[in-house]
């Protein structure tokens, strides 16, 4: 049977496809821009007849229709592998919950540990001549999720970029149960959180000074990593490469500035490797059918062994709070869930194991509350309930607008002193007093 014949036999409507979902089911909604749209709308229309339907997904880029139904939490539960602002808001209504993960292990969670999906429904690119539906910029863990789903439904979107890679970046029609042709909505765009601030630029300048020619880059999302990318694009650096969890707009700018060749990589030479990508249309256009870019599963991109195999690996990520012990929280402030662990710890560890590698945790020294009060991001101890994303033994470089410090191998008092040295000057005396109470302060003779 030809693929086109099989396609015709499996083609159905969204309304018909979602009838397979039953109360109590686990339903996988994929990841970022691969979250379904017309299937989501059709399933939301069935809300009144469904209870205890449990969803898996993450980094929502728009509010799903299942979130909008009356008393949604009575019918649905959203379990997020990584939080976006949309999901943070849904936590307060009892609809959403964060699923703590080490992101590099996520495919294995599906294959070995968690309850299999009853239904998986995701957006994909149109079927190619070989019968494959490409996942677009969302390879991440989707192949594993599809393997462990009793029913796989794909929603075809002609605007989904085809992201090349080589393995686990699509699903074959033989493994698909139903096909729905979607409304071909434009790709959802994810900005970098506004223009870089002066603080962002200062932090970026400190980091870029540490990056050598031939380095391999991993950037997180947000103003600071974006500012780093902009400075790199304008710099004299050359022969850079990319191996990252998330592909962001900054990489496009660096590549178009001629800085990325990938010639110095020991593995995947000449390829920009990533687990998923989200950004503006510029990013999607660049990734589409680009053989230089390699879409791969997250258990490859974020594997410490993959990262460590690349010399001069530079990992650059944000933090929410840091305490005087060197503990980093990048996912919560107290019990308030803000983001997710993602692959930060994987890259912190992998970059340090890389020959010449460096990992940078960066943040502004302060933030301003809604009432206008200025508070320090550097704390004596993390807020009660805060999640430790990176333990105190693992941080390499810590950066604020007041400087960059290497925390590796230091005693408690040395580490404390260095951290306070890059805190906002208005808070340093207070931090010293608290450090003295905790017996981790000894002023050096420098």
UniProtKB/TrEMBL annotation:
Pfam families reported for this sequence: AcetylCoA_hyd_C (PF13336), AcetylCoA_hydro (PF02550)
Catalytic activity: butanoate + acetyl-CoA = butanoyl-CoA + acetate
Domain of life of the native organism: Bacteria
Pathway: Lipid metabolism; butanoate metabolism
Entry keyword annotation includes Isomerase: no
Residues binding CoA: 220-224, 320, 343
Gene3D superfamilies (UniProt xref): 4-hydroxybutyrate coenzyme like domains, Acetyl-CoA hydrolase/transferase C-terminal domain, Glutaconate Coenzyme A-transferase
Chain coiled-coil ranges: none
Residue intervals of the Acetyl-CoA hydrolase/transferase N-terminal domain: 3-188
Any one of the GO BP annotations: acetyl-CoA metabolic process
Keyword vocabulary terms for this entry: Fatty acid metabolism, Lipid metabolism, Transferase
UniProt entry tagged with the keyword Transferase: yes
EC number: 2.8.3.-
GO molecular function: acetate CoA-transferase activity
Function: Coenzyme A-transferase that converts butyryl-CoA to butyrate.
Family recorded in the similarity comment: Belongs to the acetyl-CoA hydrolase/transferase family. Butyryl-CoA CoA-transferase subfamily.
Protein name according to UniProt: Butyryl-CoA:acetate CoA-transferase
């Amino acid at each position: 049977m030809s693929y086109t014949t099989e396609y015709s036999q499996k083609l159905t409507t969204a309304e018909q496809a979602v009838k397979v979902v039953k109360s109590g089911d686990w339903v996988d909604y994929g990841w970022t821009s691969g979250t379904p749209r017309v299937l989501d709308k059709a399933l939301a229309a069935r809300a009144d007849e469904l209870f205890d339907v449990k969803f898996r997904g993450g980094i929502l880029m728009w509010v799903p229709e299942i979130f909008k139904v009356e008393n949604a939490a009575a019918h649905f539960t959203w379990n997020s592998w990584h939080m976006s602002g949309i999901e943070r808001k849904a936590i307060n209504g009892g609809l959403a919950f964060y699923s703590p993960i080490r992101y590099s292990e996520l495919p294995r969670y599906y294959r070995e540990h968690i309850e299999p999906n009853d239904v998986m429904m995701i957006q994909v690119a149109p079927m190619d001549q070989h019968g494959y539906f490409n996942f677009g910029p969302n390879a991440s863990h989707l192949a594993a999720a599809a393997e462990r789903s009793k029913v796989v439904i794909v929603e075809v979107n002609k605007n989904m970029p085809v992201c090349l890679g080589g393995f686990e970046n699509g699903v074959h029609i033989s493994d698909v149960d139903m096909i729905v042709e979607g409304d071909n909505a434009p790709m959802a765009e994810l900005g970098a959180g506004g223009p870089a601030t002066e603080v962002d630029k200062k932090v970026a300048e400190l980091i870029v000074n540490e990056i050598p020619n031939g380095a391999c880059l991993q950037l997180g999302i947000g103003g600071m990593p974006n500012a780093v990318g902009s400075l790199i694009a304008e710099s004299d650096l050359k022969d850079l490469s990319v191996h990252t969890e998330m592909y962001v707009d900054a990489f496009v700018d660096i590549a178009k500035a001629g800085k990325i060749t990938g010639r110095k990589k020991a593995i995947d030479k000449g390829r920009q490797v990533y687990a998923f990508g989200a950004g503006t249309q510029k990013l999607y256009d660049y990734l589409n059918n680009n053989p230089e870019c390699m879409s791969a599963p997250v258990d490859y991109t974020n594997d410490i062994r993959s990262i460590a195999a690349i010399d001069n690996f530079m990992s650059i990520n944000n933090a929410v709070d840091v305490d005087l012990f060197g503990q980093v929280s990048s996912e919560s402030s107290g019990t308030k869930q803000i983001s997710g662990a993602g692959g930060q710890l994987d890259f912190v560890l992998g970059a340090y194991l890389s020959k010449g590698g460096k990992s940078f945790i960066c943040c502004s020294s302060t933030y301003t509350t809604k009432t206008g009060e200025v508070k320090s991001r550097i704390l004596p101890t993390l807020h009660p309930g805060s999640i430790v994303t990176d333990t105190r033994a693992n941080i390499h470089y810590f950066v604020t607008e007041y400087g960059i410090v290497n925390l590796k191998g230091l005693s408690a008092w040395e580490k404390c002193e260095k951290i306070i040295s890059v805190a906002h000057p208005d808070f340093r005396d207070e931090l010293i007093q608290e450090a003295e109470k905790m017996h981790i302060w000894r002023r050096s003779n420098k």
